[in-house]
Amino acid sequence: MAQTGEPGGDAGPQRLEPLRLSRVFPARRETVFAAWSSADHVKRWFCPETFSIPHATVEMRAGGAFDICMRSPAGEEHWIRGRFTEVSPQRRLAIDMRISDSAGTPLFDALTEVEFAEADGGTRMDVVQTYTLIDPSKAWMVTGALEGWRSTLDKLEREVARMESTPGAAVRSVVHATFHLERRYDAPVARVWRALTDPAAKAKWFAGPPGKWTLLERHMDVRAGGSERLKGRWDSGMVTTFDAVYHDVVPDERLVYSYAMHLDDRKISVSLATLELKPGDGATTLSVTEQGAFLDGYDDAGAREQGTRQLLEALAATIEA
Fold it and tell me: Which CATH architecture has domain 14-164?
């Protein structure tokens, strides 16, 4: 089904760079593979957090159907019409998909290749999705696919846990990741420091997106040995909790803290963060370095770095206005 075309051409489909992502699930390989095998399973997870699947047909065999109807929170329905092109039990799947809008107009094709392998944390699943745009104006939908996949894999993780549901069956794992970001602000260092350490100032930028996230709890005590907590509920019902402890506080120069992240009652990561401020010509350069340990199958595939980058932009909006 996927078609080729020269990127940037004026006519015909356009092939985009593939999306690649991985996740280690604390479950057996046969369980993760089986989660793709029937409409009953797929309807529970094959969509982002705020979507649902009212209709699905899944025939796991070469040439079998993989037809999914995704319903948005607004009630719009988007169809994925696909066919399995390869089925290698517990090792590999390939599905050729065509995605249409609510009116049934084709938007893009997605060749989805999935590989399953044993890993220290249970089962590693690697996904490569190659897109071919039919309607170039819908490129933004492909751009947002990575974020959709992340929440979809969170749902898959819950489904395989439900499928196994054997006491003591969880497999423990740790995945380490480090990133470093820098952002220059057109603001004096004292203003940037205040935005990082004053509770009222930080509340203006350190939060979930308005309309999609509801604050449940917030407190902040920036001193060596002090703590910070931010807890909120997403529209999907999932609760996220940020719990931090400050270890080093040098006014206008440096913050060092560790923090744990929870999704509902599940601890997904523990991280060490270092923030350094350097003034110059009336501006301030903020450097952020994080070293994270992602726990028990939660490999965020770069989501933490992307989220931190977005927060740094939100910070800019409050201090550069």
Answer: 2-Layer Sandwich (3.30)
